[in-house]
Amino acid sequence: MPKWGLVPSRRSGRVLLNNPIHDGCGVEMIIDKGVDRAVEILNNLEEYKAKTRDHIERVIKKQFTWEAVGEKLKNVIQKYL
Hints:
Largest sheet: 2 strands, antiparallel
Distance between the termini: 31 Å
Number of helices: 3
Number of domains: 2
């Protein structure tokens, strides 16, 4: 996610108290900042649509080609075999 689409967050309390698998804390967005970001996006919807399309073309599509995904899978397999 590009920085312009992220909402500031902070560490939250324990997520699942007494859970043997997940015993750590989580993260939660700062609600006021999230609301401000939503209003900003809705007030400038066409601009954010264009920014999103640009991000998809420049970043996302390159990361999810057959070659890129294949390379990542190959690296994971090599790491654990």
